[in-house]
């Protein structure tokens, strides 16, 4: 699926809000004013809502249901979306591994990293393999016994 849009440069707040919303969805920037997402009912609803919001801000927008013209193009987009998600999972895994032994610090990190994993998981359309390692590292924080 694609969201094709044009939005006035000023004021900048609607452009920033749109960019943040697309980032939360895990959309792939294909070109200026063109974002791609896997076709799911949830993504379709989100993109339609964003298109309506863009029009309210005096912009133009359309949601396109499309499919790539080749398996190679499909793989390329899957790889780009997956690479972004894998990098986020790796950051979480690294943060979990670097969390100290202090019980308070561990509990705070556990809550924060679990929330991050939920957000990343909502964008993990292709079940990136590094997700398992990130989940295991975070849950490992819950199972650490501190010896005094």
Topology diagram in text:
Layout (H helix, E strand, L loop, with lengths): L1 E5 L6 H13 L2 E4 L2 E3 L4 H16 L3 E5 L6 H28 L4 H19 L8 H13 L6
Antiparallel strand pairs: 1-3, 1-4, 2-3
Helix pairs in contact: 1-2, 3-4, 3-5, 4-5
Please tell me about this protein's structure.
- This protein has 148 residues and is α+β, with helices and mostly antiparallel strands.
- It has helices at 13-25, 41-56, 71-98, 103-121, 130-142, and strands at residues 2-6, 28-31, 34-36, 60-64.
- The protein is built from five helices and four strands; from the N terminus they run βαββαβααα.
- Strands 2-3-1-4 form a four-stranded antiparallel β-sheet, sandwiched between helices.
- The N and C termini lie far apart (55 Å).
Helix content: 55-70%
Estimated share of beta-strand residues: 5-15%
The sequence of SSEs as H and E is: EHEEHEHHH
The span between the termini is 55 Å
Strand tally is 4
Helix vs. strand class = alpha+beta
Q: Over all CA atoms, what is the radius of gyration?
A: 19 Å
Which regions have little confidence, pLDDT < 50, spanning 5+ residues? none
Jot down its keywords:
about 150 residues, alpha+beta
Q: How do you describe this structure in short?
A:
The protein has about 150 residues and is of the alpha+beta class.
């Amino acid at each position: 699926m694609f969201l094709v849009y044009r939005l006035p440069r000023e004021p900048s707040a609607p452009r920033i809000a749109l960019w943040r919303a697309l980032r939360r969805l895990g959309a792939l920037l294909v070109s200026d004013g063109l974002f791609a997402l896997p076709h799911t009912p949830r993504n379709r609803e989100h993109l339609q809502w964003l298109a309506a919001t863009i029009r309210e801000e005096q912009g133009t927008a359309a949601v396109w249901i499309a499919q790539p013209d080749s398996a190679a193009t499909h793989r390329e987009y899957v790889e780009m979306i997956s690479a972004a998600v894998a990098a986020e999972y790796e950051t979480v895994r690294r943060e979990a591994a670097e969390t100290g032994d202090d019980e308070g610090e561990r509990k705070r990190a556990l809550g924060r990293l679990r929330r991050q994993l939920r957000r990343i998981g909502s964008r993990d359309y292709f079940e990136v393999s590094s997700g398992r390692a990130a989940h295991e590292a975070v849950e490992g924080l819950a199972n650490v016994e501190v010896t005094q």
